[in-house]
Amino acid sequence: MPEFLHSDRLRQLHDYYVRLTRQAKGYPSRLALDPSAVKTALPIVYLSNVTQVENQARFPFRLVGSQLVELFRQDSTGRYIRDMQLGGWEHHIRDAHLRVLESGAPVLTVKKMTLNNGREYFAEHLAMPMRLDDERIGLIFGGLEMVRIEQRVLRMDLEQIDWARDLHGVDVLERRELSPEEPAEAV
């Protein structure tokens, strides 16, 4: 796991995924997910189906954690990622999912979002492949958390941010494939 990973909850999700992968001897099944095993991470967790529409991979959200609903200022359950209005941020989430499909490995992305007023936010996004019924990747099990900011300050800021209107740019600082077999390390 990269040294710069700040999110304890993403580290917990990755460690849980490693255990599931070892038990399954491959991509874990959605049926293997036990929410009680990652209880503290549930607010930042999402599940996204992998579908094909006109030979293009599409990713409708199946489940979105409460903290992500608050962050995105919308409940995205049932919506396709590319249809969300997040000022371009949605494209970076989709790109991580495409990389998971291409590599078959978990992908960690660190992003910096800059608002029109110059304020910067950092997010860590972990996307991990899972299967539905057969051996193909049919589901993305992921988590996304804002880091390097106090949650109290973030909550106050989120009351005023409209990502579609206020986001000036998104920079991917790091994107890498992770081993599905190595536990995470602390910063």
Automatic annotation (TrEMBL):
InterPro entries: DUF1457. Pfam families: PAS_5. This is PAS domain-containing protein. It comes from Oceanibaculum pacificum. It comes from the Bacteria.
